[in-house]
């Protein structure tokens, strides 16, 4: 792959502190992964927001207990739920002298990742000071099949992931592992996937992901996605990816995207895209959670890079044909 | 910024206060300000309290290794709540006293009135009367703002989906005020008729306590996190816009159906407001570091600090007589204004 990870942690050029959200069903190995991250000799200073005190603690880092208080914004949008405690804690952390290289938020096993992710879209103060770097989901290879049957949260946690850590691979046969991987891929083909034992994964594979993983949506071939989609219907979550060879018209695309997210936001879990806008030398990159969207012009298209536009939607009951038709209509 | 030219006109009217501000180097995020007696105090993100008077400045490490998250003046003391779980009173003479230790839980809000002190950590709220008796309660959700009612030993608590009014000395359940959303800062009107909260959704909410009638004060581009009442109690100023937004509370219905006044319009966002304790003058702090005084009667404006490095103004307080005002910023700058006599 041509892309090199840039400076991994620490406030980026915009001065914003990267936040990593660590999620995963009960017993999948979140705390093991968190302790692994913190105990590596990386020389970084993290603020760690956890729900259970006592299991985590490294001298150099600040551990903050949270209450996972989700509330609905009073703006008429039912899916605009945010983590109030997170807003409060980040506000407090920013007052500390010296600051942090990064913030890690560990969610409880039963948590829906949407409110925590949406907090970074909804609160202006949080948005001014931090950016959501990645949602990292730890998956238990042995128990996933069962979880997908009895725990709706497990589906959402996989759907939201930018990075998937498929853990406890030593407890399953190669055939079982392949089956579990296919199940995960059917829900979320775009996340970077790591197979681990004892959550052993390199810190650079988990932290400081940012644009690196968004680029990944460009690399995946539709054939691979289609195959994954058709093979497994265990989950009601599916992904839709549409590519336009060339530029799109921002005056058509942006109103459509906004309108689509408003209409389908409840079913739309995550959306991402990299776009070539007509006459624009820079790439337009967006990310969304339910109805909330955040987009920006980023680096220039490289001379050796083909200008293409691609969007990815992950959600429930998505109308693949309608999305394809609408997006293709934005092509120039 | 200042020049050799006199800053007064021939008639003696002051045209600028820039020469009347003594710069302070706080060295850390200023999280609160107050006068404890005659001593100006700034609470800091490095756990210290900076004491400033005519003799100079000194630093007291009120929360070693921690950060002050909330602070309030209480007579001749400055009460601070830290992320070390402690509530500490710093006296004007620099002595500190631990009021409470909540074992590492963050102190999110503090309030003080006539010797009584209240604080919250998460949902837990504690009230300590002047004799030192502590009563505790659990709010329905995390409390972001606490205010003492002007009369009676009563607290208003801002939390999710509304507020609670609590008499710490009774066993009665707190009175609930409902309004969907996240309520942040809390304030009673000086006559006790209204309870106001700032909200996550860039607005203020108010309740007329006699009948719990709701008031919405909206239209802010940012969260109005700073509230201040005029000395006559007829005006309430708020931050969160490119001017101080000042609501009239004279009428029986308060500001209902009335438009606010806008004072100190500048191309910057107002981050702090503080009414003068004796006159209809308001001090306004902006996110570009500027500080301006505005007289409500004629809208005349005086700059006390020009835009400067050091980040947004994050704390401001007047002394009891209204002769001095202290302020601080997010990146550790600050100043002590002494009004010309």
Describe the 3D structure.
Chain A is of the alpha/beta class. Chain A folds into two domains: 195 residues, 3-Layer(aba) Sandwich (Rossmann fold); 100 residues, Hypothetical Protein Yjia, Chain: A,domain 2 (2-Layer Sandwich). Chain A is 33% helix and 27% strand. Chain A is built from eleven helices and 14 strands. In chain A, strand 12 and strand 13 form a beta hairpin. Chain A starts with 16 loop residues before the first strand and ends with a helix. Chain B is mainly β and 341 residues long. Chain B has one domain: Methylamine Dehydrogenase, Chain H (7 Propeller), CATH 2.130.10.10. Chain B contains no helices and 30 strands. In chain B, a hairpin with a 2-residue loop joins strand 11 and strand 12. Chain B is globular. The N terminus of chain B is likely disordered. At the A-B interface, helix 2 of A face strand 16 of B.
Task: Provide the descriptors you would attach to this structure in a database record.
heterodimer; A: 332 residues; alpha/beta; Rossmann fold; Hypothetical Protein Yjia, Chain: A,domain 2; 7-stranded parallel β-sheet; 5-stranded antiparallel β-sheet; disordered N terminus; B: 341 residues; mainly beta; Methylamine Dehydrogenase, Chain H; 6-stranded antiparallel β-sheet; 52% strand
Uncertain stretches of 5 or more adjacent residues of chain A = 1-10, 222-231
Order of helices and strands of chain B: EEEEEEEEEEEEEEEEEEEEEEEEEEEEEE
Number of strands of chain A: 14
| Biggest pleated sheet of chain A | 7 strands, parallel
Shape of chain A: globular
Instruction: Provide the succession of SSEs of chain A.
Output: EHEEEEHEHHEHHEHEHHEHEEEEH
């Amino acid at each position: 792959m041509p892309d090199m990870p840039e400076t991994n942690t620490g406030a980026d050029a915009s001065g914003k502190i990267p936040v990593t959200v660590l999620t995963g069903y009960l017993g999948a190995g979140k705390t093991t992964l968190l302790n692994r991250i913190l105990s590596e000799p990386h020389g970084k200073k993290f603020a760690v927001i956890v729900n259970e005190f006592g299991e985590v603690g490294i001298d150099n880092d600040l551990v903050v207990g949270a209450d996972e208080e989700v509330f609905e914004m009073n703006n008429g949008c039912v899916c605009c739920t945010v983590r109030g405690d997170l807003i409060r804690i980040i506000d407090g952390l920013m007052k500390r002298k010296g600051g942090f290289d990064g913030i890690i938020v560990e969610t409880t096993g039963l948590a829906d990742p949407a409110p925590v992710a949406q907090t970074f879209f909804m609160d202006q103060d949080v948005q001014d000071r931090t950016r959501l770097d990645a949602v990292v989901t730890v998956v238990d290879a042995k128990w996933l099949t069962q979880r997908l049957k009895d725990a709706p949260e497990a589906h959402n946690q996989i759907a939201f992931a930018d990075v998937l850590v498929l853990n406890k691979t030593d407890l399953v046969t190669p055939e079982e592992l392949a089956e579990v991987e296919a199940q995960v891929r059917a829900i979320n083909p775009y996340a970077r996937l790591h197979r681990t034992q004892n959550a052993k994964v390199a810190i650079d594979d988990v932290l400081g992901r940012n644009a690196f993983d968004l680029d990944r949506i460009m690399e995946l071939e539709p054939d691979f996605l289609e195959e994954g989609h058709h093979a497994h219907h265990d989950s009601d979550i599916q992904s839709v990816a549409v590519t336009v060879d060339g530029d799109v018209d921002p005056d058509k695309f942006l109103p459509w995207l906004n309108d689509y997210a408003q209409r389908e936001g409840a079913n739309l879990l995550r959306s991402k895209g990299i776009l070539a806008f007509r006459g624009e030398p820079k790439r337009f990159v967006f990310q969304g959670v339910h109805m909330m969207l955040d987009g920006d012009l980023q680096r220039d298209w490289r001379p050796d890079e083909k200008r293409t536009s691609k969007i990815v939607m992950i959600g429930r009951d998505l109308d693949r044909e309608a999305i394809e038709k609408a997006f293709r209509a934005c092509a120039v | 910024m200042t020049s050799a030219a006199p800053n007064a006109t021939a008639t003696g009217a002051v045209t600028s206060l820039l020469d009347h501000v003594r710069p302070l180097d706080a060295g850390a995020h200023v999280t609160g300000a107050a006068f404890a007696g005659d001593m100006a105090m700034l609470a800091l993100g490095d756990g210290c309290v900076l004491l400033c008077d005519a003799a100079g400045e000194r630093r007291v490490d009120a929360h070693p290794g921690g950060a002050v998250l909330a602070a309030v003046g209480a007579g001749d003391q400055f009460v601070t709540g830290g992320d070390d779980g402690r509530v500490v009173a710093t006296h004007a003479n620099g002595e500190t006293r631990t009021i409470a230790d909540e074992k590492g839980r963050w102190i999110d809000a503090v309030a003080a009135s006539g010797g009584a002190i209240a604080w919250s950590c998460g949902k837990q709220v504690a009230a300590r009367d002047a004799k030192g008796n502590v009563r505790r309660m659990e709010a329905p959700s995390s409390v972001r703002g606490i205010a003492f009612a002007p009369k009676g030993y009563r607290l208003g608590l801002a939390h999710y989906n509304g507020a609670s009014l609590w008499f710490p000395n009774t066993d009665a359940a707190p009175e609930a005020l409902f309004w969907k959303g996240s309520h942040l800062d809390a304030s009673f009107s000086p006559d006790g008729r209204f309870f106001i909260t700032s909200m996550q959704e860039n607005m203020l909410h108010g309740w007329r306590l006699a009948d719990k009638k709701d008031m919405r004060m909206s239209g802010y581009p940012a969260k109005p996190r700073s509230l201040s009442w005029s000395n006559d109690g007829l005006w309430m100023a708020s931050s969160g816009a490119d001017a101080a937004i000042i609501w009239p509370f004279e009428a029986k219905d308060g500001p209902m159906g009335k438009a606010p006044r806008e004072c100190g319009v500048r191309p910057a966002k107002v981050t702090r407001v503080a009414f003068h304790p004796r006159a209809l003058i308001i001090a306004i702090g902006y996110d570009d570091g500027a500080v301006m005084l505005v007289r409500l009667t004629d809208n005349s404006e005086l700059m006390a600090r020009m835009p400067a490095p050091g980040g947004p103004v994050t704390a401001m307080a007047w002394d009891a007589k209204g002769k001095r005002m202290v302020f601080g910023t997010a990146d550790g700058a600050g100043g002590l204004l002494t009004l010309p006599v």
